[in-house]
Amino acid sequence: MRIAVFQVEGLTVRGEVVGEEAVGLGRRWPLSQVKLLAPVRPTKIVCLGRNYAAHARELGNDLPERPLLFFKPPSAVIGPGEAIVLPPSPRVDYEGELAVVIGRRCRNVRPDQASQVILGYTCLNDVTDREAQGWEGNWVRAKGFDTSCPIGPWIVTPDELSFPLTVETYVNGELRQRGSTDELLFPIPEVIAEISSVMTLEEGDVIATGTPAGVGPLHPGDTVEVRISGIGSLKNPVKGG
Ligand code: ZN
């Protein structure tokens, strides 16, 4: 199932995408006639840093011994097609990532129970002010600015996916990142166990699983696309601030 939130005829509909149609409220519309929104409104977005070895190396970082965690605020979320507005910074990067969407409130989940709390998976772009990340201790400005968290285009339920998934990022149609989820340093069940040992995860919360190698800058006028096998494509235009 592809779970989606979309706008059509002045309504906001929580429904699904079936083939080339958006379905909800007992009705169907051609997908091309609806505007997809972010498929989830999380209370928090918990992100992993340096969860692909090749990406840690490209930024000159050691590999973490435990999952390196940080937050993006819910106010950073935008949907497919919405503009990423660059903050005033010499370098703002795309980071294409697989996102896990939590399906129910949970705490202290064991790795072998993790599949029970996963609603599904989607694409996420962890847009990062790389310059601020260099001087700012806990990345609030680097990772938290408005529009820095595109999510979408929809949530695909686990029964429709076969892992490993390929995570790719394109800028203006050109491939910049390609990784496989079998390269994750900390696999998803361990990550859910670690986070939920610290805090309650709510229904709709999002875990961004880290970015593969190949990060690079965005510029006004670019279009950036995160594409994940079996899920789909999340495309956003980029604007100056
Ligand atoms: Zn990231």
The unreliable regions are none
Give the total of domains: 2
Number of helices: 4
CATH class of the largest domain: Alpha Beta
> Strand pairing plus helix content: what structural class?
mainly beta
How does this structure look, described?
This protein is mainly β and 241 residues long. The chain has two domains: 37 residues, SH3 type barrels; 203 residues, Fumarylacetoacetate hydrolase, domain 2 (Alpha-Beta Complex). The chain is 11% helix and 41% strand. The protein has four helices and 20 strands. Strands 1, 2, 3, 4, 5, 6, 7, 8, 11, 12, 14 and 17 form a twelve-stranded mixed β-sheet that branches. The radius of gyration is 17 Å and the shape is globular. The model has no long low-confidence stretch (mean pLDDT 97). Bound molecules: zinc ion. Zinc ion binds next to loops.
Descriptors:
binds zinc ion; mainly beta; 241 residues; 20 strands; Fumarylacetoacetate hydrolase, domain 2; SH3 type barrels; twelve-stranded mixed beta sheet; 4 helices; 2 domains; five-stranded mixed beta sheet
